[in-house]
Amino acid sequence: MQPKGGSELAYQALLKNVGSDWVKDINLILSVCNPALLDPNRKNIIWQQLSYDQQNVAMMRDPNFVNKVDCFVYVSNWSYEKFRNIHNTPENKSLVIKNATEPFVYTQRSQNKIKLIYTSSPNRGLDVLLDAFEILNRDDVELDVYSSTIIYGSEYSKQVNHIYKPLFDRAKSIKNVNYKGYGENSVVREALQQAHIFAYPSTFEETSCMAAIEAGSAGCKMVTTNYGALYETCNEYATMVPFNNNKKVLANSYAKALNHTINNYWKQENLDLLQKQSVYFNTFYNWQVRKNQWKNLFNHISKNNG
Fold first, then answer.
1. Are 197 and 117 in contact (CB under 8 A)?
2. Which residues of the chain have pLDDT under 70?
3. CA–CA dist 276, 280 (Å, integer)
4. Res 278: pLDDT
5. Whether domain 6-98+286-303 has CATH 3.40.50.2000
6. How far is CA 242 from CA 92, 108, 213, 221, in A?
7. How far from each other are the two terminal CA atoms of the chain, in whole angstroms?
8. Is 1 within 8 Å of 154 (Cβ atoms)?
9. Per CATH, is 114-284 categorized as 2.40.110.20?
10. pLDDT for 3
11. 68 CB-near residues (< 8 Å, 6+ apart)
12. Cβ atoms within 10 A of the Cβ of 145, count?
């Protein structure tokens, strides 16, 4: 199985919405800063989804490499600021084009059990969420977990699945937790439209977060941490729990925030806000808007020297 993470899905969406005519003139590199990926016969754009401190971006400190790149595209202002300050990325080659998703139709949720949903990789806060869920200890709430290692491809899964298997087994063993494992994006999108709360105590410095964008568009109440670009991506709609490196402390803080959110979910003020949130995300993270930004960039790069 080939990787189907956020970057890969974003690239496929780009091709679907913008087309592929630009490929003959432009070499679009997904995040990895490797000189071997540069094409001397085309304009080189790096679509930087990775964070500033990851190994695959280390070459951004090398002036020789940077000089051969025509443009760096970042998925959030937070990410751009990090690269600009830490790697001294040239400002005249930098641009922010945020991620996007296909629009969701907002639907009213069932008034049965409140359903929480987790849709990210296991290393980004699933352990904290399970701790918090056990602290909650509520029978009127259930949690669906869409998380696996296979999303990054079969080879990656073979190498690391043993690391996360105990975490997956724990999820399967906890009362009112439904471990779903890997789900195609269409399946996850449908699940988001039925879920009440996007539960993501992120312990990973997201540069944007497609999971949050989809949850926001679907109209899920978002409860996450103010870590990385999440506060930018979620705007003022999410309940933000202060990030803490001590996972025990974070789990307790997150459980309190979840409990408050669950208790207040059915208030009309919250329901009205979730509809506004869905409109906001479907407006500003929509491919119908984003494709024009990409087309403008491709046209500019094709006609100019940088």
1. yes
2. 1-6, 152, 156, 305-306
3. 6
4. 98
5. yes
6. 34, 30, 20, 17
7. 36
8. yes
9. no
10. 52
11. 35, 38, 44
12. 26
Task: Give the tokens for residue 43.
Answer: 């304009």
Q: What is the pLDDT of residue 225?
A: 98
Q: Which two tokens mark 5?
A: 């993470």
Give dist(CA 287, CA 103) in Å, integer.
8
Cβ–Cβ under 8 Å, residues 202 and 224: yes
Q: 79: which strand partners?
A: none
Strand residues in 196-249 grouped as ranges (E): 197-200, 221-225, 239-241
Residues constituting the chain: 306
Q: Give the pair of three-digit tokens for residue 171.
A: 């999820």
Quick one: pLDDT at residue 306? 43
Mutual orientation of helices 287-303 and 6-18 as an angle, nearest 10°? 80
**Could you tell me where the beta strands, DSSP code E, fall in the chain?**
26-30, 43-48, 71-74, 94-96, 114-118, 141-145, 177-179, 197-200, 221-225, 239-241
Within this chain, domains 6-98+286-303 and 114-284 share the same CATH topology: yes
Q: pLDDT value at position 7?
A: 76
d(CA 147, CA 141): 19
Cβ–Cβ under 8 Å, residues 116 and 141: yes
| Burial classification of residue 198, based on how many CB atoms lie within 10 Å of its CB (0-12 exposed, 13-18 middle, 19 or more buried) | buried
Q: Where are the domains of the chain?
A: 6-98+286-303, 114-284
Whether the model pTM is above 0.85: yes
Give the model's pLDDT for residue 149: 82
